[in-house]
Each structure stands twice: as C-alpha cells, then as structure tokens.
Write a structure and sequence with these properties.
By secondary structure, this protein is mainly alpha-helical. Helix content is 48%, strand content 0%. It has a domain at 19-50.
C-alpha cells in the first residue's frame, strides 16, 4: 500500500460517479478518518504503482 511521499498538491481532478460508488468511498473514508479526496488520491497512487507507472515531480 502507498505510504505517502509528502508532495505539495497543486493540481485538481474532478469526476462524476454513481451513488453506490460514492457511498462506498464515504464509508471507507469515514472508517479511515480521511476525506474522500485523501482516499481517492491513495487509490489512484496505488493503481499507478500497481501498474508500474512512475510519477515525476515538477518541483525544483
């Protein structure tokens, strides 16, 4: 599981989903005491790692 490299978050991503997916995200986020945004970022980062993709920092 992604352990969370500390990087300044500067970009926004939004998406639409269905009620069932939203409810699941809300439930899991509440269990972890995270926001849906934090949970979504964790899920996306884990998917990137699982698929062997690299993220590059644009910060100097």
């Amino acid at each position: 599981m992604y352990t969370g490299d500390i990087m300044k978050k500067t970009e926004f991503i939004t998406f639409r989903t269905n009620a069932q997916t939203k409810a699941i995200l809300e439930r899991v986020a509440e269990e972890k005491k995270w926001s849906i945004s934090q949970l979504s970022a964790e899920i996306i980062q884990q998917w990137i790692e699982d698929n062997g993709l690299q993220t590059e920092s644009t910060e100097d």
